[in-house]
Design a protein that fits this description.
By secondary structure, this protein is of the alpha/beta class. The chain is built from 11 helices and 10 strands. Helices cover 47% and strands 21% of the residues. Strand 2, helix 2 and strand 3 form a beta-alpha-beta unit. The protein is elongated and about 65 Å long. 42% of the residues are buried.
């Protein structure tokens, strides 16, 4: 599943945590690791080299060889270029970095990589906790073909880590009800929507289980509300360690990623999020 992993670092605590997560994941999969740091106006080549030395030490401690590269370029360009050059299966990076301004950096480096890299991207937020094991994995789904792209990596990760895999559908009642929801909808209507969603989820779970070459069992749940908010609440309520979510399709990564459910989840959830590229 993951044979070549690119880890992007910039010296921030968030990127250091991402490096730990990337090395641990590579160790689990027996993957090769390429680390990249971009030298630019705010980070000279010597400092970038020092940052990469730390990643190489992490790899050495875990028995994972790390090939390190300093690239003089804009960070997002450097990351995507290295990922393409080494045909990476996965890019691992912090969700925000040295600027300390979450939305600003998310909108520049991480979001540009998510828009332009034709790879799965694991984004790791800042936290005091290390990311080495995943015990509970969440895969949100709306039943669409796009959402189903997350099934293979989600089930494979759950199998590798022996993790519980939760499937969640959040029903947007207002969207389902359309113009008839202006005056509100009754509880019976909402319960019917949730029951229908659970039936579809059960059918999907049977389909996914038949396709997966593992014994992973799915735990199913439905919620009503705004999808991104429902997902974030579920993460908190169930101590989810990793969210695996598909981007909404080719158009999202071509420039419409902002505003999508995946984008909002990245802003709301304080756990690692793996965004699965449409190429799957």
């Amino acid at each position: 599943m993951f044979e070549q992993v690119v880890i992007a670092v910039d010296g921030s605590e968030c990127a250091s945590r991402a490096a730990q997560a990337g090395v641990a994941l590579a160790d689990t999969y027996g993957a090769r690791v390429t680390a990249v740091a971009a030298a630019h106006e705010e980070l000279d080549q010597a400092a970038a080299r020092d940052i990469l030395d730390e990643v190489e030490e992490l790899g050495a401690d875990a028995g994972v060889p790390v090939e390190a590269h300093v690239v003089v370029d804009r960070p997002s360009h450097a990351i995507v270029d290295i990922a393409d050059r080494f045909d990476a299966d996965l890019v691992v990076m912090g969700r925000h970095g040295n600027s300390g301004i979450r939305d600003r950096l998310f909108g520049s480096v991480t979001n540009r990589v998510l828009r332009t890299a034709k790879r799965d991207v694991l984004t790791v937020p800042a936290s005091d906790e290390q990311v080495e094991e995943f015990e509970t994995i969440l895969m949100p789904t709306d039943g669409s073909k796009a959402a189903s792209r997350a099934v293979a990596p989600a089930t494979d990760l759950a199998d590798r880590y022996g993790a519980a895999l939760h499937l969640l559908t959040v029903v947007d009642v207002a969207m389902e009800a359309g113009p008839f929801s202006a005056g509100g909808v009754d509880r019976e209507y909402v319960e019917r929507l949730l029951a229908d969603a659970m039936t579809e989820l059960e059918d999907l779970a049977d389909e996914y289980a038949a396709e997966a070459a593992t014994d992973v069992e799915f735990e199913l749940a439905t919620r009503s509300g705004i999808p991104s908010e429902g997902i974030a609440a579920y993460v908190d309520e169930n101590d989810v360690d990793l969210v695996v979510i598909a981007s909404t399709g080719e158009s999202s990564l071509a420039g419409q990623f902002l505003g999508s459910t995946a984008d909002r989840v990245l802003r709301l959830v304080d756990e690692p999020v793996l965004v699965v590229h449409p190429r799957r």
